[in-house]
């Protein structure tokens, strides 16, 4: 599903940075997304949350709980849950997966994991494994944009990635990174 509104909002708020980029995880891209540009303006974030809520309602109409991780999905999960009238909980991923003490849901819940941007999918997979281990039914994942496919999971995004991942081994010795140590 492509949502031109999300891309227009990112563009308008300076959230799309084109240029050779090295992420903290070692991946290389021809640009990166500064999601903080949308978080900084609650009215704008709420517009994106409303779009994500519509996508969640359509793809996962039986969801009873939305879950986000504090580093990437807690704020979107809360905002989307407000639009859907759902409960929300937060899963901590470090040092090991655990519930945040604010809400420890009792199983079984029908859960959608909410994120803003998924780069490698490692954190999302860790969260999904934890949710299943806790006795919940994972319906799927909703993210604004995902660079990873999340094999075996239903993934609903608002837009495709605007920048390509590149093979670092194919970069020339004179390649200069415009952006380094980036975490999307």
TrEMBL record:
Q: Which InterPro entries would you find in this protein's record?
A: PRTase-like (IPR029057), PRTase_dom (IPR000836)
Q: Supply the alphabetized keyword list.
A: Glycosyltransferase, Transferase
Coiled-coil segments on the chain, per record: none
SUPFAM superfamilies the UniProt entry points to: PRTase-like
* Taxonomic superkingdom: Bacteria
Q: Does the keyword Cell division apply?
A: no
Return one GO MF term: glycosyltransferase activity
The record's CDD domains line, in alphabetical order, gives:
PRTases_typeI
Protein name, as recorded: Orotate phosphoribosyltransferase
Can you name the source organism?
Deinococcus xinjiangensis
Q: What is the lineage of its organism?
A: Bacteria, Thermotogati, Deinococcota, Deinococci, Deinococcales
Gene name in the database record: pyrE_2
